[in-house]
Structure formats: structure tokens, C-alpha cells
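HUMAN:
Just now I want nothing more than another pair of eyes on a protein record. I would be glad if you read both lines and explained how they fit together. I have put the entry right below:
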Amino acid sequence: MAELINITTDQEGQLWLSQQPAGRPPPRIIPNFDNPSNLDAAVFSIIILFCSIAVLATIIRIYTKIFFIRSLAYEDYAVALASVSPFFPPSDGNTLKNLDHWTNINAIVLAPEEFLVGLSILLQYLRIFVPHRRNAQVMYHAIYALIASNFAFYLARFVGLIAFCVPREKLWKPWITGGHCNNADTWFLASALCNAISDFGILILPIPCIWTLQLPKKKKVMVSAIFATGFL
């Protein structure tokens, strides 16, 4: 598309970009550009609510570990670091440039945050289910295999998002001639698939250990359900 239009300055490019639709409207929907409806209030309310719950839970956990148990484990440091990851909202208007720019920045920040959350869970598994490596070799190696694969995936995602477009400026200035951007649909589909595999692996990892415990079947189901809540 950039080769078919004559744009010589950033100002012309911004004007052209502001006049382009973000996408086709859904069937039977008539666009209203004068007074557009949006879900900003609902979206930001949900983000603030669940981020507040996560931060509060982390504060309670760290407080309990410091003042009652008087000992912090590696998983506590990991989840505390994940909790302070920032969120960057667009700050200079609702333009397609800002949407692409800030969405990319937030996705970059999210990669190490998601890794730290998974790392915290896996380190806790290690402390609970592998008190002695000699007696739980399979679980030990499975946990470290997940940690290594998660690190490789999130590092690749982090670097890939930074270099999503070359030059990077092409991400919000698509009229720039030369350079290239990755296919967004393929990229995010592959990322979502890897995320799902990682989350599912973390979910099922402790189940075999739980079912080897000398407990009634009902209690095994309840304990498995407690661990499964982390998947939510």
C-alpha cells in the first residue's frame, strides 16, 4: 500500500493514516466518526480491578512471609517483580499511531512479567514437590524443562516484539518505503499457542504428584482444584 501513495513528509503520512479505517465494520454496523461509542470505561475498570486484586494478593503474601513466616523464597521475589511491571496507556490522543505504538510497548513489557509469574509458580512447585531431588527426579527435571522452555519462549517474544518492524518506526509510520514488518496474525497466533501450551503444562504438572498422596479421592480432587485455580 505504501508504494501506491505519494507521501513525502511525516505530516502528510499522519494525515493519510488518520483518514484510514482501522478495519471493516461488523455486519449491520454503521460507523459513527462524529460521536463514536467505545468500551474504554469498562475496559479500564476491569484492568484496574484485576490489577488491584493481583497487587493486593501479592502484598498480603509478602507481608505474611516477612512478618509471620519470617522467610522469603525465590518465588516470592519473582512474583513481587512481576507485580511492579508498568502499564503504558496512550498519552497523546486516540490515533492509529498511538494504538500500534503503545500496544507494542505494553506487549514488550508483558513478556518478562508473564515469565516471572510462571517462574514463581514453578519454583513453588519445586519447593513443595521436590524437597529432595533424589526422590523426585522426574518432577525435578520436568520443572526445570518448563522453566528453560518458558525462558526461551518469552525471550524470543521480547526480542521479536522489539524488532517487529525494521526500522522500528515503520510500526506507526507504515508509509515508510523500505524495511518490513512481521505478519501480525501469524505472530500473535503462534504467541497465543505457545502461551496456551505453557499454561497447560504448568496446570497439569503437579497433578500426578497429588494423586500419589495417601489421601481419599475426594481430597485429591479438592487439592487438584486448588492448584488449578492458578490457571485462571
